[in-house]
Amino acid sequence: MNHGLVLGKFYPPHKGHIHLITEAKKNCDELTVLVCSLQAELIPGELRFDWMQSLFPDPKIHLVWVQDENPQYPEEHPDFWNLWRETIESHTKRKVDFLFTSEEYGEPLSKVLGCKHTLIDLNRSHVPVSASKIRESPLTYWEWIPELIRPYFVKRIVLTGSESVGKTSLAETLSKHFQTNWIPEFAREYLETKEGPMDESDFLPIAKGHLLSEIEMAKTSNGILFLDTDLLTTKVYLERYYESEIPWLTERALGLKYDDSLFLDIDVPWMKDKLRDLGEERESMRTRFLQAMKEANRKFHLIRGDYSTREQKAIEIVTQLKSKPMNPEIFTLEQRRLRNFE
């Protein structure tokens, strides 16, 4: 039985990697894939290895996580090729017969390993993307990111502010414009179906329901997800109505990171409905929300003017955000824990 080898950072895995490994497996009986990571990289190696295990459940594809802090380019070390030969030999169960790559380093590495080299899609004609391009602008290369890992690259934008400033209508408008998902305010959905008035015990299920909505909707979002409020809003209202605190809520309200926030000002008419009762406190609630944003260390854009002006300004801001690099904070162990990615 012949043995093939693929190695790479998979930083992150993309559909070009899937093509490489799929083609490699067609040309050998058993395939070892080395997932190589360095501690300084922004997407943890452990997470990338988990992704690869989910992407390739084939028992004949043997995935190995390599954590050796090796040099990345020949000019970095005089014994570069031997260092990598030692790493590969120590992480593979048997001699390598075939090396499969999409890179120019494949030929010299195959000579060091004493095996045959097969080059697959060097010019990226089959899958025109690279991991570095995805890190630099994930939304530009969205179609080449595997569905499994897209939630980590979704740009999450929170619409925040006090009552009756147009958060819901703007979130819905933005989702239509950018052809993606938005999350309605979970508290409204929850309270409209509840028998009896709201009480303090409702705040934890509201907070958990809202976060679960974010996690689920990110899975099918088209690169962007708009949130009509978030847990910081829930925290503000809990303090306003009950002068109370829920540790689970506080930790996430202050700890969760987002790509951007649109803070809607109170310069539009207040519209009464059955779930709004703070029309006389617009100024003080605006102050509360601004304080909360500062406490959570949230940067935001202040959105003012009539509804048409707000929509125009918001579209401009989100359009600029679309070309931004990936958000490295999302990949941290802390953020994954807070969002229950773990």
Automatic annotation (TrEMBL):
Which residues hold NAD(+)? H14, T101, S102, E103
Supply the InterPro entries for this chain.
Cyt_trans-like, NAD_biosynth-regulator, NAD_NadR, NadR/Ttd14_AAA_dom, P-loop_NTPase, Rossmann-like_a/b/a_fold
> What are the UniProt keywords, alphabetically?
Nucleotide-binding
Q: Where is the Cytidyltransferase-like domain?
A: 6-39
GO MF annotation list: nicotinamide-nucleotide adenylyltransferase activity; nucleotide binding; ribosylnicotinamide kinase activity
The protein's name is ATPase
Name the source organism: Leptospira perdikensis
Query: Where does the NadR/Ttd14 AAA domain start and stop, copy by copy?
Result: 156-310
Which SUPFAM superfamilies does the UniProt entry name for this protein? Nucleotidylyl transferase, P-loop containing nucleoside triphosphate hydrolases
Please name one Pfam family that this protein belongs to: CTP_transf_like
Question: Which GO terms are recorded in the biological process aspect for this UniProt protein?
Answer: NAD+ biosynthetic process
Entry keyword Disulfide bond: no
